[in-house]
Amino acid sequence: MKKIEHQPLSDRAYQALRDSLQEGVFLPMQPMIIRTLAAEYGISATPIREALQRLVAERLLIVLPNRSIVVPRMTRQRFLQLMPIRVSLEGMAARLATPNFSEEEIKALSDVVQRVSETTRSFDAKTYLLLNREFHFMIYEKAQNPELLQMINDLWLKVGPVFTGLFDDNYYRQHANDEHQNILAAIEAGDAEAAQRYMQKDIDIAAKALLPLLPEEGDT
After folding, report:
1. How far apart are CA 70 and CA 63, in angstroms?
2. pTM of the predicted model, to two decimals?
3. Which pLDDT belongs to residue 202?
4. Topology, domain 10-70
5. How far is CA 77 from the centre of its chain?
6. Cα(86)–Cα(152) distance, integer angstroms
7. Predicted pLDDT at 220
8. In this structure, are residues 183 and 190 in contact, taking their beta carbons and an 8 Å threshold?
């Protein structure tokens, strides 16, 4: 978990918590305890409290009847509703991004793919999730479309908390980097359609690993 540096302001706490939601640091229905978060992020309680209130207002966190603030529960039905939107938007972003990469940026993307390979060999799920997000958003940002990037960010905030279950699936763990390598090769070749196709396949493979772990609507 990243420490928050410099002056402890609520907007920095807010951004750090958003990043952690996307990275799968927090699990569905995990209580957000202010004192614990303040210690983990190296920041005082007040900006954490204010950041949590903002996330509740955005429905990225919910308040239970006992007043606990928790990460929303993700059901199979909700996940399946989000899937085609993710496939469409993230595939589009990969296609748009492909012609915008410089040689230096491709090298940086390649370095991330190499580091992801190391996490799959060492079964380091925590580092994998950080690098997976870094890889994807290095591409999405190169689409140079702020509105599209914002929509993808919002989707990842909803699905990120379930990503922690990816390494529970043996097949996924063994193939977690396959499509990343294919996406990288497509970008290197300047093949935007292939980059889109492989990005969509990457999302689909992850979904197949996660769906069996998600509860049905109405399950307790």
Report:
1. 6
2. 0.85
3. 96
4. Arc Repressor Mutant, subunit A (1.10.10)
5. 19
6. 7
7. 53
8. no
Look up the CATH number of domain 76-213.
Answer: 1.20.120.530
Per residue in 103-117, pLDDT tens? 999 999 999 999 999
CA-to-CA separations, 115 to 33, 58, 105, 121, 129, in angstroms, rounded: 32, 33, 15, 10, 11
Task: Find tokens 């063994």 and name the residue.
Answer: 174
Tokens representing 81 are: 């509703």
Q: What pLDDT shows up at residue 97? A: 98
Six-digit token string for 31 = 């209580």
Residue 27's pLDDT is what? 87
**Domain-by-domain residue ranges, the chain?**
10-70, 76-213
**Which residues of the chain fall short of a pLDDT of 50?**
8
142 vs 149: CA distance, rounded Å = 9
pLDDT at 166: 86
For residue 23, the model assigns a pLDDT of 87
The contacts found for 110-118 with CB under 8 angstroms, 24 or more apart, are 110/184, 112/138, 113/177, 113/180, 113/181, 113/184, 116/176, 116/177, 116/180, 117/177
50-59: which pairs have CB atoms within 8 A and are 24 or more residues apart? 50/10, 50/13, 50/14, 51/10, 51/11, 51/13, 51/14, 51/16, 51/17, 52/17, 54/10, 54/14, 55/14, 55/17, 55/18, 55/21
DSSP state of 98: G
8 A C-beta contact, residue 199 and residue 139: yes
DSSP 31: B
